[in-house]
Specification:
single chain; 6-stranded mixed β-barrel; 1 helix; about 10% helix
């Protein structure tokens, strides 16, 4: 059983964290213009009326996870644009713990919303 079973299927909001110098390396990605994103799990259906841009939380190799815009689900090569996401809700932390495999994951997750 996964520990994020209490993560709502409709998703949850996370905060966007940007570099203090104010530069944007996302090439127009959603995290460059929004302070919050809506996160869903990799297998969840895309909600119709999310309050923020929708991103999937996906595993990105051993010990890693990332957030990818749902519009990149069917192609494209999402890249890290310099911004991170996190929130204080324990359900989001448990989701990241399961995706990384770290039982005590603590930190922010890279937002991969840059596309060239």
């Amino acid at each position: 059983m996964t520990s994020y079973l209490d993560f709502p299927e409709r998703g949850m909001s996370v905060d966007v964290y940007r570099p203090a110098h104010g530069g944007d390396c996302t090439n127009g990605g959603a995290s460059s213009t929004h302070d919050k994103l809506w996160v869903i799990t990799a297998d969840a259906p895309v909600p119709e009326n999310a309050p923020y841009p929708i991103f999937r939380a996906v595993s990105h190799g051993p010990g890693l996870c990332r957030l990818v815009p749902v519009e990149m689900d069917n192609g494209g090569w999402p890249m890290f644009g310099g911004n991170f996401a996190n929130c204080s809700d324990g359900r989001v932390c448990r989701l990241f713990q399961d995706l990384t495999g770290f039982p005590q994951f603590y930190g922010a997750v890279a937002i991969h919303d840059r596309q060239e």
